[in-house]
Amino acid sequence: MIEFLYSIDVALFRFINSTLANPVTDKFMPFITDVKNWYLLYVFLWFLILFKGGRYSIGLAIGMILLVVVSDQLSSSILKNLFERPRPCKVLENVHLLVGCTDSYSFPSSHAVNNFAAAMFFTYFYKHLKWILFSVASVMALSRVFVGVHYPSDVIGGAIIGMAIGYLTAITYELILKKIYSLKFFKVKSKSE
Description:
Blueprint: H1 2-19, H2 23-33, H3 39-52, H4 57-83, H5 88-91, H6 110-125, H7 130-146, H8 152-181
Helix pairs in contact: 2-7, 3-4, 4-6, 4-8, 6-7, 6-8, 7-8
């Protein structure tokens, strides 16, 4: 059964990585997959949340940093070492490799875990942004297969893990923020007082 599922995974990987490859994706996907190209947007979003995020803006800005640290460490330091799955670029022949093939393990995709955790976390508080958040997370995750460093199951598994982390963090964080903001120190006096 595991061999059958792996063969499907490899077939999907070949389809996305090689069959769908073209000059546009060969330029676009390495750009999308490089986290350094997103730093400016991440900083902009952080300040946007901080100053325009509504009632819990400061708490959510801090939560964004904590969420990424937790999701990244869970996927990179714990889950990858637990599953020890080699990357497709290490074990398959004729991979259409567009970026460097690192020695770290393949499952789950940390890009998928981190981006889907953030998408779920912020969708919980800003539901009107769900389409853009999940679209960006999906393109980022899919780019990992296009560039040849992850199987489709790595990004699907990473997306599921990330959404679970994002949701659990959001509901926990909401409870904490409600407690903090209910303290008299944070309450704004009304004009009648």
